C-alpha cells in the first residue's frame, strides 16, 4: 500500500483501504485483459473521454487523475478535458461522434432513472457501427467497474504516471 503523504500546504492524503491487485490477483488480471481488449477496439480519444467522463460522474478521483494524465500524454487538449463535465454547454469542443459517446457514457453510468434512453442509444448507433457500438458499451462498462473498485477501496490519486500501467 502507498503510505499517505502530506504536502505542507495541503490536507493530508487518505490511506487506501486495500489493494485489489494483491488481494484478488485473478480478478485484477481478468480486468486488465478486458481493459486491454477495449483499448485495442475503441478509438483512443473516445476511450479516454469516456473514461474521464464516467470517472467524473462516479467521483473516482484516482481514475480521473489517471485518465486525465493519459489523455494529456496522448495529446488531448487541456481545454477539452476541462470542458468535459459541462460538455452539453460546450458541444463545440467535441465532434458529433464524441458527443454521442459521451451521452451514452452518462446514460450507462447513471442508471437510477431506468434503462438507457432510446434516443441516446439511437444517436450513438448513428455514429458507430454495431461492432463499434458493442465495443463502446464494453469500454463504458469496464471503466464503471474500475471506478467501483477504486472508489470502494479508496485508491489514492496523484501518484499515477502515464505509461506505467
**What spatial form do the alpha-carbon principal axes imply?**
globular
Q: Which percent range describes the beta-strand content?
A: under 5%
Largest beta-sheet characterization:
none
Task: State Rg.
Answer: 16 Å
CATH class: Mainly Alpha
Q: Quick one: how many beta strands?
A: 0
How would you state the average pLDDT, rounded?
93
Order of helices and strands: HHHHHHHH
- Looking at the structure, the CATH topology is AhpD-like
Termini separation: 16 Å
How would you name the CATH homologous superfamily?
Answer: AhpD-like
Model regions low in confidence, pLDDT < 50 over at least 5 residues: none
Taken together, the total number of domains comes to 1
Structural class assignment:
mainly alpha
| CATH architecture name | Up-down Bundle
Share in helix: 55-70%
Number of helices: 8
Structural topology:
Elements: H1 20-23, H2 25-41, H3 44-57, H4 61-73, H5 78-83, H6 96-109, H7 118-127, H8 130-153
Helix pairs in contact: 2-8, 3-4, 3-6, 3-8, 6-7, 6-8
General description of the model:
62% of the residues lie in helices and 0% in strands. It is built from eight helices and no strands. It has one domain (21-153): AhpD-like (Up-down Bundle). It has helices at residues 20-23, 25-41, 44-57, 61-73, 78-83, 96-109, 118-127, 130-153. It is an all-alpha fold and 165 residues long. It starts with 19 loop residues before the first helix and ends in a 12-residue tail after the last helix.
